[in-house]
Design goal:
292 residues; alpha/beta; TIM Barrel; 8-stranded mixed beta sheet; 8 helices; 28% helix; 21% strand; binds iron/sulfur cluster
């Protein structure tokens, strides 16, 4: 099956290239790498350095993505690479997301068809692009996804929603489900703590919700960052009014990690308060996460 290939980069007038995989749109001079460390300008072409180099490969329950209303009870073949286009201060996968691929230490290539074979042999019904931001390894993800689709598997994107519009449009051709992080509802904090513009994330979430892609939203509830009733309510109202009351919302407990070690884990009460707020905003499916 042939898929239309969107423009992954564009040459600039100064002879550099502009990466178009995500809205950071890094401009890379010859030999230069982007913010994520996963894409490089080699001889005027964009090279996806992490292509074929997953650093995490697991068979996970689909509910761990988390997706609670898509292929329930199935397993998903999950992979991620090094690097990320965000720098979230609380990242719980920072050991891989905040590390750059080093070409000096070559590792074996895992080809797209080998990933799909692994998924089929392990009885998975889908392949998930997860752990770090898949937009930064989009060329690899899409090549896997095209073969997965031919073989009757579904494709799942677990993302921070910071793709360019062209990539979001292209995802709709082959991605079946997405879990998008909505980290907070305060523009200043979003930029300060993740490095990304909240409006772009909201734009992309709305675009995915307005398509056949099954979408679920996740918000990590972080004490003193986004856990006021007002902010939680603003997120819930956004989902309910802009995406629809049927869109599932996962509200998860934070634990101190990476650079955010100055506060305690989210209490069970706070997570259940968020569930209550979500339900009162009209959402039909609100799930607590990381609480026992
Ligand atoms: S994918 Fe990486 S190199 Fe490309 S724009 Fe985003 S951060 Fe920059």
């Amino acid at each position: 099956m042939e898929f239309f290939q969107p423009e992954y980069y564009r040459k600039t007038e100064s002879g550099a290239i502009k990466c178009l995989l995500c809205e950071r749109t890094c401009v890379l001079k010859e030999g230069g790498k982007g913010f994520c460390g996963a894409n490089k300008n080699e001889d005027g072409e964009l090279v996806n350095l992490v292509y074929g180099h997953p650093v995490a490969l697991n068979i996970d329950p689909v509910e761990k993505k988390p997706l609670n209303r898509f292929l329930q009870g199935s397993f998903t073949y999950s992979l991620g690479t090094l690097g990320c286009n965000f720098n979230c201060q609380w990242c719980q996968n920072y050991q891989i997301s905040q590390k750059h691929f080093d070409e000096k230490f070559p590792s074996d290539i895992v080809l797209p068809d080998e990933i799909v074979t692994g998924a089929i042999q392990s009885g998975c019904m889908s392949v998930s692009y997860t752990y770090n931001e898949p937009a930064i390894f989009y060329p690899y993800a899409k090549d896997i996804g095209s073969i997965a689709k031919e073989n009757g598997l579904k494709n799942i994107f677990v993302t921070n929603g910071y793709q360019t519009e062209a990539i979001i449009k292209d995802m709709k051709n082959w991605v079946d489900a997405a879990n998008v992080d909505l980290k907070c509802f305060n523009r200043e904090n979003h930029l300060k703590y993740t490095g990304g513009d909240l409006d772009i994330v909201l734009r992309n979430i709305k675009s995915l919700a307005d398509s056949p892609v099954h979408i679920e939203i996740t918000s990590l509830i972080i004490p003193g960052f986004n856990d006021s009733d007002e902010e939680i309510s603003n997120i819930a109202k956004f989902i309910s009014s802009e995406l629809g009351t049927e869109v599932p919302w996962h509200v998860s407990a934070f634990h101190p990690d990476y650079k955010m070690t100055d506060r305690k884990s989210t209490s069970r009460e706070k997570v259940y308060r968020a569930v209550e707020i979500g339900l009162s905003a009209g959402l039909k499916f609100v799930y607590p996460g990381n609480v026992w």
